[in-house]
Each structure stands twice: as C-alpha cells, then as structure tokens.
Amino acid sequence: MRGADAIVKALEKEGVKHIFGIPGGAIIEVYDALFDSGIRHILTRHEQAAVHAADGYARATGKVGVAFATSGPGATNTVTGIATAYMDSSPVVVLTGQVPTSLVGNDAFQEADISGITMPITKHNYLVTDPKDLLRTIKEAFQIAPSGRPGPVLIDLPKDVTIADVEFNYPEKVELPGYKPKYHGHPRQIKRAGEMIMKAERPVILAGGGVVISNASQELTKLAETIPAYVITSLMGKGAIPETHPLSLGFAGMHGAKYANYALQESDLIIAVGIRFSDRTTGRVSDFAPDAKIIHIDIDPAEIGKNVNVDLPIVGDAKLVLKELIKHIKYRKRKEWEEKIEKWRKMYPLKYRKDGGLKPQYIIEKIWELFPDAIITTEVGQNQMWAAQYFKVRRPRQFITSGGLGTMGFGFPASVGIKTAFPDKVVIDIAGDGSFLMNIQELATCVDFGVDVKVFVLNNMFLGMVRQWQELFYDERYSATCLKCKDMSFEKIAEGFGAVGMTVEKPSEVEDALKEAIEIDAPVVIDFRVERLENVYPMVPAGGALHEMIDKEV
Amino acid sequence: MRHTIAALVENKPGVLARVAGLFRRRGFNIESLAVGITEKETISRMTIVVAGDDRTIEQVTKQLNKLIDVIKVSDISSNAVERELALIKVSTTMQNRGEIIEIANIFRARIVDVARDSFIIEITGDEEKVNAFINLMRQYGIKEVARTGKIAMQRGNKALE
Ligand SMILES: Cc1ncc(C[n+]2csc(CCOP(=O)(O)OP(=O)(O)O)c2C)c(N)n1
User: Fold this and answer.
1) How far is the CA of A367 from the centre of ligand 1 (A)?
2) Residues with Cβ within 6 A of ligand 1?
3) A322 with A365, same domain?
4) Residues A385 and A468 in one domain
5) What's the average model confidence in pLDDT over A442-468?
6) A278-305 pLDDT, tens per residue?
7) CA distances from B19 to A302, A346, B15, B48, B63 (A)
8) Are the Cβ atoms of A302 and B59 closer than 8 angstroms?
9) Which of A430, A465, A472 best tests ligand 1's pocket when mutated (most atoms within 8 Å of CB)?
10) Is A408 found in the same domain as A430?
11) Residue A304: closest CA among chain B residues belongs to which residue?
12) How many contacts, defined by CB atoms under 8 Å, are there between A and B?
C-alpha cells in the first residue's frame, strides 16, 4: 500500500473525523489519499489557523485534533499554533510534508527543519526517514499526545516515505520504555493531604486547566462541597467548577476579582489541582500566599516545586486522586473564614461605570445573559480578560482561550475547530480588533464550509491591553498601539468574504444585534464600537503581589 | 553544587539535540557530557555533569524524565566511580623527556605517541587527577588537550536500568 494511503487509513483507525490544513507539493500524496477517505478536511486559509482549529477541536472535545501542512513555509506557519497548544497542554497531532529524504539537509526547495524548530514546543516529534517506521510512528503520536499531560506531537513526512510501498500492519498499542505517566496518586500522600485539609482553618482550592483536561470537575466540585472550601481557578481552570456555584470565587491573578486574590493570599492551605502556578496567577511569587501550606496535585512531576515550594506533592491524574482524597474528608464548616470571604465578595464585586458609551463589559454580560450555554473562545488582551470576568462559565470545556502563550489570533480559528466538532452548539469568539485581524482570513473558511461561528469584536481601535499598560505605567505614551484606520469597517470586510456583518454603536442595540447574530444561519461578525479608553480592573501590576491590586473608583 | 547525572536514552538520531536543547532552554548549565552505547545497542548512556542548587537539579532530572526518548535518569553524585580520559600533547626536548616520563609513570599515565618534539600522553582517572596532571604538564608546554568528559557508575550491586 502507498505510504500516503497507509497514513490516511491509520488516521481513520484512530477515529479521526476532521482534519484542518493546507496542501502543497511535499504533502500532495497524502492529500491524494485523503480524497477517497471519509475524513472531512477543512481547508483553512493559513496553517497557523489550521493548528489553532485542531487545538480548539481538541480542547472542546477532549479528543486529538489533527492538522496538515506542507513542507517549508507551510510547516513554519504551524509554529505559533503548536507553541500555543504546547503551553496549554492540548493534544494536537500535526503532520507536515517534507522534501524527499535524499534532499533533506541540502537546503532543497521548501525545506525547513521543522522537527528541529519544534523540538522545544512539542511533547515529542518525529522525522520519519524509513517507511518501515511510518505506522508505528503514527501510533506513537496518537498514544503520546492525549495521555499523561497532553501536548502536541509533530510528524514530519518526507515525500518519498509517502510514496513508498508499505505493508499496512497498524499496531494496536506500542511500548514506549521512556514514557510511563503515573495516574494513581500515592495512597499515603493522599491520606496525609486529607489530614492537612481537616486541620486547615482557611483552606482554598486552586484549580487549573488540568482539572478540565482530566474531566475532574465533578470530583473537584464534590471535594469543595465536602470540605467545604472555596474554589479559585486559573484562567485555564475556568469551568473546573460552575462559576455560578456558591463556592466559586472565579479566577485569580492579574485580573482576577479582588475577593479571589485576597482569599488566596490569606489562606492557610491551598489545595492546588492541575495547575502550574504561572506568574499571571501567583503575582510576585515571593509574596504569594505567605501563610499557606500547599498541597499540589499534578500529573506532571516536573510542575511540582517548579515555581512555588510545595508542602505535599501528589503526582497523579486529578480525577483519580480527587476521588480518593474525598474519602478522607469530613464536612466541617469554617464559619469565620466563610464570613470573611463573603464580606470581601460583597465589598469588592467586579464593577464598571455604566454611564457613557458602549461598554465592553456590558456586551459580555449580555452575551452571558442571552447565551449562557454557548462555547466561548477569546482572543488575547482586554477582550480576553473581560470575557473571563463577566462570562460565568458553567461547565468544563466551555471557555477556550490561549492562556499560556497568549496568542492573539487564536480564538477565531479555534472557534472554527469547535464549531466543526459541535455544529449544533452556539460558538462565539469574543475578539479584540487587533487580534481578529491576525487570522481574519478564516472568514473564508467559515463561508466555504458553512462553519457558522459568531465573532463579536470589542472594537476599541487600539491594541487595548498594551495601551492600558501605557496609560497606567508609561505616562500615556501610546507608542504603536493605535489601530484607528479611517473608515475601516468589519461589517464590510465580513460582507466581502460572503459572511454577515453588523455594526453596533449604542448599548440599546446590543441585545437585538446579539439575538439576530445567533439566529442567522451564517458566520456573523459584529463590530461593537466600544468606549475606546476602557480599562480592565482590578489589576495586579506586573511584578506586584496578588493583594496589591489597583482599581478605579466607580 | 555539581551533580553527576546518568541517563539511559534511546539510541536514536536527535536524542542528543533534545537533551542539549532542554538544558539550553531551561537555563541549566552543562559542564560536561559524555555519550556512548550500553550493553544494549538500542540504548545509550549519557553522563551529564551539571551545576546548580538542589531545586535546579531536581528540575533537571524531572525535565529529562519528561523526554520521551529518555528511559531512566539518576543522580549518581554520591558513591560512584568516576572516570575521565584525556589525551595531552606536550612539547618535549631531549633534556626533559625523562622527567616527563617519570611524572607520567607516577600518574599511571601512558605515552601513546612519540614524535621528535612532542609526546601524546593518555591519562585516565577522576577529574582531579586529570587536572593535576595537566597542570604539571603546563611547564613543558601543552600543545593540545582532548578530554572525554566524565563517565560514572554507582558502586555496588544495583544497576541503572
Ligand atoms: C501574536 C501576539 N502579538 C502580540 C501580543 C502582545 N499583545 C498582548 S495584548 C495585545 C493587544 C491586543 O489588542 P486587541 O486584540 O485589539 O484586544 P484588546 O486588548 O483591545 O481587547 C498585544 C499586542 C500578543 N499577545 N500576541
């Protein structure tokens, strides 16, 4: 069987239903084989978008997302997508074409050393040089990407390997001597964690993306209710507990609510689950939760002790560990702690000035009110933070954002992948004008494939988050952050692609516009002309401690 | 503190690049690195000498363990036999040859090549011994030094596998 046919057959065996990508000379054989397959290929208009789409698909479904690209520029275009997936532990398999093995290393036309380039941003990668290794390699990739701590895997396929004759003997499972993720936590450690929790007077749970990935939100919620303890998440952990739950304090960190940050800072025990203590979540790490002991549950042993000192590590899968841990807990109300937190919650709600023009926060509130079940993606910047603050996520995999790499241009193509997986769900990209422009070409993909995602652009005509920093910390010297173009209209751009465009300038128009956008059977872009100088508050300045938040009087 | 780390890795192309890349990216400092195949030809052994505090070394071993091609990692800084091999080309004269041979003998080093104005001397031993020998040779004029970097193995019955 031709190598290319074997590849496609292997993908079918892996249960792949959708592939995102763009063909080219080096991968043309594989596309030829794909022509006869039942797998649906979505032709994105940029390889970066193909990987983001596969990534969004993976995050929303929990299954491996697959992207194709050709050699050279096709492959290098995938880099930002791969790095984004890597930072947020998303299982993506990327297949790239490569020049024939006889030319590898010769600077041949469209040759780029993509396995070398992506070494630090993949969980693992391969350059297949012998057709005999082809099928085993694909199996390994599909085994490695979603297991343990998930991550992207790239397979580089020289053209001759895709042409070569191979015998189709696809292994059921392969042995990887150097790869043995540990799923079950150590029983003694779990017991000790239970004891620490029972003794704590001011416990909080800090949940990260790992809870979502391991499908452990039920267990996490149960643990919270059993202790009982308030739950704070990272940005990636949104959805680990319904944010409408009385024990949820939302997300903490640079733009977390004050009560969430205060609760962390004053706690005496942090039960950290599937979280890597990124600087955006901890603030100045030397002043992070000074009185707290830390229990750290994570499947990746290298995360333990990497950023903060941990008192009790438990290496294992969040779901399995939490299931065991709950058995060691007896309900004990901590009245004083609860009262303190509820007082903070009352004193420091998230807020913004409602007078004046069109407020971005108001738009998010309306989106939440009208479509609380929608799957939300975001771009990066103020739009992302407002979305995180005002959209109360009620289930895991509902809020999908580039947390680790902070990739502008992620949200829109990610929404394309998600809508492909869930054609019947409402999928909304909450965007900034700057970010949307970074992958706006995907409107063509949406129209071409009938992917009816909705892009709601909070258009402040600025690189807003950078402008906010310049306003607050650089004397309002707005260096290179103004995006105002005379007469530029997202409505017309959308129409130019054959999608539907709308422009909204007044608060009173928001509700109708949102409803109409969701009703229309087409990709829709709404250009919300928001207050240009609105800022995201509260805010921990970069390098500040979590409790050192700045806020604006409202 | 310097630590000696032994790693069993798949004998595949690219593994060295992965390990070296990991050290560079995470800001770990490699002082020496030696690679060779083991009793199984599909597996290589790396001996890595790295400087850092306990936290750094813990990260080094954990991050190495995360590489799919790395099978086993162990910090063997204590209670290990450590060896290094060096080849040293020293300038010689008719007058000092005898003296150099004598020093070499004391160190159990061997003269493996003799030319008109130079010797190549082979020495094995732990790092300090090799350093001491090289220092003594300086007075005669060292033309070239090639060192393997350290290899090491823990004493006793237990084996890294
Ligand atoms: C690809 C990329 N380039 C640059 C940045 C740095 N950056 C972070 S936020 C931001 C501004 C984003 O502007 P916009 O998309 O309009 O969103 P807003 O903050 O205005 O909501 C920039 C440039 C980034 N995160 N990603």
Assistant:
1) 22
2) A 379-383, 406-409, 432-435, 458, 460, 462-466
3) no
4) yes
5) 98
6) 999 999 999 999 999 999 999 999 999 9
7) 15, 52, 6, 10, 9
8) yes
9) A465
10) yes
11) B59
12) 39
- Which of the four pLDDT bands, split at 50, 70 and 90, describes residue A76? very high
Judgement on whether residues A322 and A372 belong to the same structural domain of the protein: no
Residue A85 reports pLDDT greater than 90: yes
Q: What are the backbone dihedrals phi and psi of residue B111, each rounded to the nearest 5 degrees, phi first? A: -90, 115
The single-letter code of the amino acid at A421 is A
| pTM score | 0.97
A338 & A270 share domain: yes
Residues A500, A403: one domain? yes
Torsion over CA: A272, A277, A282, A287 (sign): positive
Out of A179, A300, A301, name the one closest to residue B68 (CB).
A179
**Do A317 and A447 belong together in one domain?**
no
Q: Which pLDDT belongs to residue B156?
A: 95
- Residues 55-114 on B with a CB inside 8 Å of A are 55, 58-59, 62-63, 65-72
Cα–Cα–Cα angle for A425, A391, A244, rounded to 5 degrees: 95
Question: What is the Cα–Cα distance from B26 to B59, expressed in whole angstroms?
Answer: 9
Instruction: Establish whether A516 is a catalytic residue.
Output: no
Residue keyed to tokens 């070494």: A119
Domains in chain B with CATH codes: 2-78 (3.30.70.260), 81-151 (3.30.70.1150)
Minimal C-alpha gap between B2 and chain A (Å): 20
A116-160 tens-digit pLDDT: 999 999 999 999 999 999 999 999 999 999 999 999 999 999 999
Do both A128 and A197 map to the same domain? no
- Identify the band that residue A552 occupies on the pLDDT scale cut at 50, 70 and 90: confident
ipTM: 0.92
Ligand 1 mutation pick, A235, A430, A435, A460, max ligand atoms within 8 A of CB: A435
Report residue A319: phi and psi, to 5°: -60, -50
Taking the C-alpha atoms of residue A280 and residue A283, their distance in angstroms, rounded to an integer, is 6
Task: Place A553 in a pLDDT band, splitting at 50, 70 and 90.
Answer: confident
Please give the radius of gyration of chain B, using alpha carbons only, rounded to the nearest integer: 18
Is A12 noted as a catalytic residue in this protein?
no
pLDDT above 70: percentage of residues in chain A: 100
A536 within some domain: no
Does residue A73 belong to the interface with chain B, where contact is any CB pair within 8 Å? no
For the cut 90, the answer to whether the pLDDT of residue A486 exceeds it is no
Q: Which domain holds residue A64?
A: 3-163
The yes-or-no verdict on residue A554 having pLDDT over 90 is no
Assess whether pLDDT exceeds 90 at residue A315: yes
| Segment holding A457, helix H or strand E | strand A454-459
Q: Considering the domain boundaries, does residue A540 fall inside one?
A: no
Distance (Å) from the C-alpha of residue B53 to the closest C-alpha of chain A?
13
